[in-house]
Amino acid sequence: MQDYSMEDKMKNIKYAVCYLVIILMASIPLFNNYLIRGHDIYFHLMRIEGLAQGLRAGEFPVRIQPAWYDGYGYAVSVFYSDLFLYPAALLRLLGISLQDAYKVYVVLCNIATALISGYSFGKIFRKREIGVFGSCLYTLAPYRLVNLYTRGALGEYTGMIFWPLLIYSCILLLNEDRKKVQIQKGAVLMGISMAGMLQSHMLTAEIACMVLLLLVIVHCRRIFHKEVILAGCGAVAVALGLSAWFLIPFLDYMLFERFNINSIRNNDIMIQRQGTFLSQVFAIFDNAVGQSLDAGAGTAGDFTQGVGLSLMLSVIILMLLCIRGYLKQEERRNRQITITAAGLGVLMVVMSTLYFPWDRLCRISRIFRYIIVKIQFPWRFTGVAVGLLVVVWCAVLNYTEREYDRRKKVITICLAVGILLLSVGHFVIDLNQRAERIQVRSVKEMDTFVASGEEYLPVDTVLDELKTQELYKDDCVEISDVVYRGTSMTMHVKNTSTQQAGLDLPRLYYAGYQALEVMDEGQHFPIEVTDGTNHVIKLMIPEETEGNITLSFREPWYWRLAEIITLLSAGIVILYTYKIWTREKLKNE
Questions:
Q1: Closest CA to 166 of 361, 421, 410, 344
Q2: Chain-centre distance of CA 577, in angstroms?
Q3: CB distance 284 to 309 below 8 Å
Q4: Is 303 within 8 Å of 362 (Cβ atoms)?
Q5: Across the chain, how many H-helices and E-strands are there?
Q6: Cα(231)–Cα(243) distance, rounded to whole angstroms?
Q7: Secondary structure of residue 294 in the 3-state scheme
Q8: Which of 174-178, 399-403, 409-413 holds the top average pLDDT?
């Protein structure tokens, strides 16, 4: 018993060292005193700073971030969940520089990706060493590194944390030998992974829904059973419950307000020519720096968009195993997992290319057009393709281990990891040589008017006018003692006329702002808040009135109810997960 315990401890240390090496390799570009200027990095740095300033002003959860547009505020937190950014925002409150807070966030994402992928792939094939192997391939995948550094796509690389967990949950639900506890576990894990994607990157969640729909079509016979359907409904309930605090405000604005994100525009956009070339799909030494260029520009200026040869090789080896009949010797469960992962993985790769008929699909209906246009770039499907092809590599390694052929096992690992490390090494060198470097210690070193597409602004807002627009009032209105705190404002206002007068404030108008007038006698009176010039807040000051007015953002009651639902859902999920874990532990003993 003592020898077994010592052997088990040594294995744990070995695995811990492997994970540490993987995390450090994925974090190499962070070990310096600057940031790589990713395409979207300023947008996400502003999200962290805006969240920190909102917390500093006493707002929780933060809905309108006050740092944007020189204090006018931006409802980015309503449309783009900030749940996972709170640790970085708290570091800002503790005095850590903005770029260091961002770096800590990236490291935390690398840790989460390595551990969750290792857990998921290891559980799929019931071997911890395969989990480490899969974690290495997934965490260091060139496309993921591009999201981390070249693009600075915080939402997408955060969403990629949950792909392996979603794949594992699907396998639990679709396994022919599934038992009740496996179905329950699959439902919970699927709900958690979908909630994680929803609150990381909505487009990743949209792609996940497409993949799940394909699985339903392919495995309809297994899915249309009472226990699986109930588990699927449970997964939806978990995802919606954990995401209610974000989804209810999001839907409230999307359905009942007019912003750039939900306005009818860009109807002529076609995305097919933004797809990857075949040469990029099989690349080893691809660009670490570049843009997403139109197909007419070729590949010279593109960044890495394909899965790369290191992962596509798994499909080639699998085909050779099938031709020689080796796959038939694999147990039925693993064979079905491998074939499904390979088929879906290759399909996702094809969908990421410019050869897939995206433009033709756009012409079928307005609904198809709306969904496809929102994806923006076909190469977004590379993210899920990476996860699926890693499953194929894990299946190949599992086969070599089952055959007890150490030589084949070493060759498999060397092929996969060796080619991957060549790609990673080239990526880091190219990034260091050609990437633009920036230093952003605080919001003072940034342009607060940076916004990716200005999606969350009221329709027809003119940003240039906000740069010069200040307090605007009718001549009969006198103001003094103006104090700004986050999204809130307090001021002393006097209307000397016998008519209602207007007062435009340096705050963008979003539904939820309220104003109260406090008279000298201590009485409170509501002040009408409307949409003013260039969509700033306009207060309608009553005639012959004088007092202190406080403007602040107040969540509707149903937003607060959604937050309570999320807290209750989180508590239930934690208790239920503990119950399932206890059952598995007792069973293993």
A1: 344
A2: 23
A3: yes
A4: no
A5: 22, 10
A6: 18
A7: coil
A8: 409-413
Tell me the pLDDT tens digit for each residue of 76-108.
999 999 999 999 999 999 999 999 999 999 999
**Number of other residues whose CB lies within 10 A of the CB of residue 481:** 9
pLDDT tens digits along 122-132: 999 989 999 99
Which amino acid, residue 182?
Answer: Q
Which pLDDT band, with edges at 50, 70 and 90, does 469 fall under? Answer: low
CA torsion angle 97 439 58 448 (round to 10): 170
The residue whose two tokens read 């992928």 is 117
Q: Which of 500, 259, 204 is nearest to 381 (CA)?
A: 204
Three-state DSSP at 291 gives strand
ω before 526 within 30° of 0 (cis)? no
Helix axes 382-402, 202-218, angle to 10 degrees: 50
Q: Which residues contact 30 (CB under 8 A, 6 or more apart)?
A: 103, 106, 107
Identify the band that residue 411 occupies on the pLDDT scale cut at 50, 70 and 90.
confident
Q: What is the distance between the alpha carbons of residues 51 and 45, in angstroms, rounded to a whole number?
A: 10
245, 581, 322, 284: which is closest to 419 by C-alpha? 284
- How does pLDDT run across 523-575, given as a tens digit for each residue? 678 899 999 989 999 999 988 888 899 999 999 999 999 999 999 999 999 99
Q: Concatenated DSSP letters for 539-551?
A: EEEPTTEEEEEEE
- Gap between the Cα atoms of 191 and 186, Å rounded: 8
Alpha carbons 144 and 160: distance in angstroms, whole number: 8
Q: Residue 206 and residue 533: Cα distance in Å, rounded?
A: 36
Query: Which pLDDT tens digit goes with each residue over 322-380?
Result: 888 777 767 778 888 999 999 999 999 999 999 999 989 888 888 888 888 888 899 99
Q: What is the DSSP string of 65-102?
A: BTTGGGGT-BTHHHHS--GGGHHHHHHHHTT--HHHHH
Out of 340-349, 408-417, 515-524, the most confident range is 340-349
Own/partner contacts of 553-558, CB < 8 Å, gap of 24 or more, are: 553/59, 553/63, 553/64, 553/487, 553/488, 553/510, 553/512, 553/513, 553/514, 554/512, 554/513, 554/514, 555/63, 555/249, 555/512, 556/252, 556/512, 558/248, 558/252
Comparing CA positions, the residue from 428, 503, 506 lying closest to residue 465 is 506
Report residue 313 CA to chain centroid gap. Answer: 28
- Percent above pLDDT 70 for the chain: 95
What DSSP letter does each residue of 413-465 carry, written as one string?
Answer: HHHHHHHHHHHHHHHHHHHHHHS-EE--SSGGGS-TT--STTTTSBTT--HHH
Q: Which residue in 400, 428, 402, 436 sits closest to 415, CA to CA?
A: 400
* pLDDT at site 454: 85
AA identity, residue 390 = V
Question: What is the 3-state secondary structure of 302-316?
Answer: ECCCCCCHHHHHHHH
Element (H, E) at 516: strand 513-518
Estimate the share of the chain in helix, then strand, then coil, as percent rounded to the nearest 5: 65, 10, 25
Q: Are the C-beta atoms of 507 and 489 separated by less than 8 Å? A: yes
